Amino acid sequence: MGNFLWTIPFQVITAIFLLYCQLGVSAIIGAIALILILPLQVALASLLSRFQKRAMEFTDKRIKQCNELLQSIKLLKLYAWELVFRDRVEKTRNLELKMILKAACLRALSIVVTECIPIIAIMTTFLIYRWIEGKTLTANKVFSGVALFNILLIPLLVVSLAVNALSHARVSCRRMNTFLEMNEVESVFIPLTKADRELNTLLEISNGNFSWKHSTDKSEDQEIILSSINLTIKKGSLTVIAGPVGSGKSSLLAALLGEMNICSGSVKRCCDSKLAFGSQRAWLLNATLKDNILFGSSLIEEKYERVIAAAALKQDIAALPGGDNTEIGERGINLSGGQKQRISIARTLYADTDIVLLDDPMSALDVHVGRHIFEEAICSYLINELKRTVVLVTHQVQYLPKADNIIAMEGGKIVAQGTYGDICDNYPHLVKSWEETEMIKYMDPKKVKSLNSSEIDLNRGINLFSSNLTRSSSIVSLPLSRISLDNFEDIPSVVPQTKQNESDKGEETGKLIDSEEIETGSVSWRVYKKFILAASIRFSVSTLLAYFIRQSLRVGSDFWLAHWSQSSTELRQRNTTEAEIISHQSHMMLIYVLICCCFVIFSVVSSLLTEYTCIRGSKRLHSTMLHRLIDAPMRFFDITPIGRIVNRFTGDVMILDERLAQVLDELFYCSFFSLGGVIVNAISSYYFIVAAIPLVAIYLLVQRFYIPSCRDLQRLNSVSKSPVLSHFGETLGGLSTIRAHSRQSAFSKKNNEVVDKNNNAFFNLQATILWMGIRLDFVGSLTVFASIVCVLSSGLSGVASEGVVGLSIAYSLMISFSLNWMMKSVSETEMNFNAVERISHYINIKNESFNANEDVDKDWPSDGVVNIENLSLRYDENLDNVINNLSLSIKGGEKVGICGRTGSGKSSLMLGLFRLIDISGGNIKIDKKDISDIPLRNLRSHLSIIPQDPVLFAGTVRFNVDPVELYSDETIWKALDIAQLVPIIKNKAGLLDSPVAEGGENFSAGQRQLFCLARALLRNSKILIMDEATASVDMTTDKIVQRVVNQHFKDKTILTIAHRVSSILNYDTIVVLQNGNIVEAGPPSELKSKMDGIFSRMIHDNL
To answer: Which of 173, 377, 493, 879 qualifies as a FRET site for 420, CA 20 to 30 Å off?
Structure first.
């Protein structure tokens, strides 16, 4: 388009000059009407950009909500909240479509104005020529004028398209400019003095006040998160940061990383020192396990093996299908929480750095595994061997005696600092608070024993690959199927084998993520049918009919001009009186004006119908895809990257929203115009039909080469966008880690690579379009030549009248353009329907089984009795069972602790209760009702769960605890009070309507877990499942959760997956699972007394 724009002034000036030569001053007046379109187009473009900006804002919001829904889909299924989040997305979608429809109407109006102005200009010119100048319209005057005005139509259409494109680009550029003008995270570090370096100081903060808001305006009010911070980190030391929920521990690490804005004070750091950072939530790449550990560093075998041993990963790697070359999936979806954290730790161990910052890395590990990491990885390897400086955030106080310096945080301030002995002597109240957490037993140095990696069998598990059965160690934080690790070395493990028809390729290569589907061949007629049904057959037929009438009126107006000019000539030749001529001319003019007005009306109607029909179809397809996705089984999300799914909701939906209607408008307009031109030429000369046959063959030959290439390039273009989105999302999730390791350039390079691949596909697509354009121009020239030869031969032989000949020649000059544009639109339509094809793939995915024939009362279950009979569970119909013929009876109000090695089936059993995995045999009955007979969401909404990894959503406090809006404010406040969240919420201006950031980033990890506790309190179900609910929180939160559960759920049936065995010692029954079977069950006192029992050894290992 850009190459064509600069030629437009020359075309317009030449056409106007030729019009003046033919029609005189009247042509200039008609041309002025054409020129007046430009300010109108500018005004429409300004209004269009306003609507496009608003539409983009809603699009951003919708995509953010879709991403949040997909990221948290497992938790939403467990809470039965999918419909709430679906409705939230669709509400935003409706607002988005209102803006898109307004913009589409303006865009359609702009194009219609461009197409209708030439008709209006022709009408104005001929009216002036006949009635003001008093001249007679002859065939040569009429059709030379029509031809020249039609020539003006092409540049005006291009200008209209350019104005619309520039309007869209303007909005996009402004949005990009707003982002680019935002303040960047600048280095807050100043070099240490020589005196500091002589004292072995590596990091030092003096009177530091920090906020999260980065602003260049120092006078702007900023919320101080950390205040009056003074600390010194010595070379080779171990500094431990401790404190209660929300005290600022993680924020202090962020300040040391330079991620926070320093409002006052200073942060000094040794100039040549390098950092490594391990986040609280392990951030992993969608790459191999080895790549995650190396993180861009070169491989040194000896060092690599030492790191693997220190991080206790040897046995994990041995069990993986591809060893350390196994893909670990997006966000590490095929790993347990402990594995992910140990890989993150291994990355920090391998990095060539001076300072290592670790944000509570042991929270996802069992006590003895965490002890191994502390002793072997941190103390032995980092500090003793490499002489590194380590800053460790932890709530596990058993490690405090080993620290060189302890920093106690509270309320964003350092309240105590010194060695463990100093803290005991000077701050006894802190030690007392730690003792009250019942963790003081771990602080006896005699009990802090070191374990070699060979003493820990961490790898007796299974994985998510298509050829292996997989399990999770946490219902919410981990996918349903993944590699599972064991915590107990002497408990045998069996890796289930797949069915015989499963491929071994995944096992051999370690490939996890399915390749994105790419269709081949032409787009199926079923895809077109699906879109037509979504858009409505009624509207689709009405649109085609409107275009047919529109073009019929266009051809009719030109035929009427031919008739008008021919009849005027005949009247003059018959010496008709002037009064009869004036009456005849008035009659002809009136009908011509009416035809032109009808043409304008149907032009508006047809364009608006196209826009509305496409948006209607897009709305229904988006809604159907969203509905099907939220009902998809969890395995689909485990093997499908979120970026790939988001690409459907962005690029593909955007094509349906905006581009498809424009392409169809061009296709219908050019198709009916070309059909009209062919009919006019056929009427003028039958020879044209004979000449058209080889020309059609040439067109089809060009299309035969072009369409398949263009179609597949469009598919490649769509597919190549998914890695761009995935990499971008992956980068955003790990910005702190990337910056800490100074890997910005590597990630920028990777971003350029995936963008270049997408651009290569797009460039080749555009080059193919140009290739076709050149050849179609040549064929079009042949068409014009053939048409003119046929028409002139008919005219000279007297077969066709002068008016028809003139009309045919005028149409011949335009038919090349319309045919070429039509062929381009045909191929582009097929390319755009590739978006419908890709969306249809997700519409057709297999859903969870929602079939059920028995509803339950509102107060079900009333007793909380659970009976499991010969239960067998599996994650996929192609995988073997993970639970085999298990039977268990749980009384109402009974407290049952479920333990066993990771991969033993405890999480699978819990997932079976929620029917998140398939029941392949037996049954589960709750209060004598088979859960397979209960509607799926009804079942899940009557159970409660407190997950290991808490998830909060962008919205308000109220929305995060009661998104279904079932409870009163009084009830919500009561639940928040029991969960000890009231002081935190009341400190916020909005109270229950206080904003919650995406992912709950404005709340600490412990506070987020308390929100999950509040949700369970509100639901007040008779059955509560605790999925290692306190495994990843600090000691204070652990204490709150345990106390609230004991006090407020004492009459409930509680099933707890135990991370810390000590947390279930006061339960009524302990169930030990192994290989999907119960191997021990009974009261804790009974199982403890079995000296050679599995549970007894678990207690011993956790001491």
So the answer is: 377
Pick among 1.20.1560.10, 3.40.50.720, 3.40.50.2300, 1.25.40.10: CATH of 2-181+524-843: 1.20.1560.10
pLDDT digits (tens, 9 = 90+) for 169-224: 877 788 788 888 877 766 677 777 777 666 778 888 888 888 877 554 444 556 78
- Report d(CA 715, CA 764) in Å as an integer: 12
Tell me what the mean pLDDT of segment 927-951 comes to. Answer: 87
- Separation between Cα atoms, residue 566 and residue 563, nearest integer Å: 5
Peptide bond connecting 861 to the previous residue in cis, omega within 30 degrees of 0: yes
The mean predicted confidence, pLDDT, of the chain is 79
Using CA atoms, how far apart are residues 759 and 785, in angstroms rounded to an integer? 39
- 902 Cβ contact partners less than 8 Å away, ≥ 6 residues apart: 336, 338, 461, 471, 473, 484, 485, 486, 487
Please determine whether the domains at 287-396+439-497+506-512 and 866-1101 fall in the same fold group of CATH: yes
Domain boundaries, the chain: 2-181+524-843, 287-396+439-497+506-512, 866-1101
DSSP per residue over 325-381, as a string? GSB--GGGTTS-HHHHHHHHHHHHHHS--SEEEEESGGGGS-HHHHHHIIIIIIIII
Q: Is 1064 within 8 Å of 1058 (Cβ atoms)?
A: yes
Residue that the structure tokens 């589907």 belong to: 517
The span from the CA of 810 to the CA of 183, in Å, is 60
Nearest CA to 203 among 255, 248, 259, 249? 255
- The two counts, helices (H) then strands (E), for the chain are 38, 22
- Average pLDDT of 905-928? 87
Q: CA-to-CA distance for 538 and 28, rounded, in angstroms?
A: 44
Q: What is the band of 2 on the pLDDT scale with cuts at 50, 70, 90? A: low
Quick one: pLDDT at residue 532?
93
Instruction: Give the model confidence (pLDDT) of 401-438 as tens digits.
Output: 888 999 988 888 888 898 888 888 888 887 777 655 54
The CA-based diameter of the chain, rounded to the nearest angstrom, is: 128
Write the pLDDT tens digit of every residue in 800-847.
Answer: 666 667 677 777 767 777 777 887 788 788 888 888 988 998 998 888
Cβ-count burial 1022-1032 (b if 16+ within 10 Å, e if not): bbbbbbbbbbb
Containing H/E element for 1056? strand 1053-1057
- Does residue 491 contact residue 460 with C-beta atoms inside 8 Å? yes
Task: Tell me which residue has tokens 């029609």.
Answer: 23
pLDDT at 475 over 60: no
Burial status of residue 18 (CB atoms within 10 A of its CB: 0-12, 13-18, 19 or more): middle
Q: 667: which 2 tokens?
A: 């296709």
Query: Are 979 and 219 spatial neighbours (Cβ–Cβ below 8 Å)?
Result: no
Share of the chain above pLDDT 70, in %: 82
Assigned superfamily of 287-396+439-497+506-512: P-loop containing nucleotide triphosphate hydrolases (3.40.50.300)
Query: 202-216: b or e for each residue (b if 16 or more CB lie within 10 Å)?
Result: bbbbeebbbbbeeee
CA distances from 563 to 570, 591, 675 (A): 10, 12, 21
Architecture of the domain made up of 866-1101:
3-Layer(aba) Sandwich (3.40)
Smallest CA-to-CA distance from 633 within 71, 77, 1026, 10 is with 77
Is the pLDDT at 483 greater than 60? The verdict is: no
